[in-house]
Amino acid sequence: MKTMKWTATLLSAIFLLISCSRTAYVQKDSDVDFSKIKTYSWVRTQADKETANASTRNDDLTNRKIRQSIDRNLAEKGWKEVKNNPDVYLVYDVMIEKENKIDRNAVYSQSFTRWFFNPASRRWVPVFYPSRFLGFDENTRTVNEGTLTLTMMDADTDKTIWQGWTTSELNGRKLSDKQIDSKVKAIVKKLEE
């Protein structure tokens, strides 16, 4: 009996952890053998150079944290960052946009009890009326939704060979360290598939 309870608890904990993990999506070139790729280099795009003004320098800390998280997760997979002759080039993009989210909540009537007098038994008899389903209450709210995209390009042809992204609702205006790590981990995990 103890082992049955222990097994049920363990299975429910595993189910809870799996259901809380981030979902990442991937597009990849099926002709590329990703097992041969072991080195990478970061690309600074022309758009980055053109928009390198004071407002983007404020996000320098977030950009460094994203890059460090990607480097750390790729190093765990055996990848190495090099300056010359990489197998692939990497570039990432963060997009934060406002989205309308609809929350639907079920609405029920108030349950109540009515009392009736029974003249035959000379007593008051309670009659319970349960609550009834009335429909749904819909609320629309504006949320910040963040999308992190990691793109991998072949170093020889400059063609995109792999792209992974994940999207989630943000608590504030910017990505937190915890959100960055979980998003990057979910994306890099898809490299094995």
TrEMBL record:
<feature type="domain" description="DUF4136">
    <location>
        <begin position="27"/>
        <end position="190"/>
    </location>
</feature>
<keyword id="KW-0732">Signal</keyword>
<protein>
    <recommendedName>
        <fullName>DUF4136 domain-containing protein</fullName>
    </recommendedName>
</protein>
<feature type="signal peptide">
    <location>
        <begin position="1"/>
        <end position="24"/>
    </location>
</feature>
<dbReference type="Pfam" id="PF13590">
    <property type="entry name" value="DUF4136"/>
</dbReference>
<dbReference type="InterPro" id="IPR025411">
    <property type="entry name" value="DUF4136"/>
</dbReference>
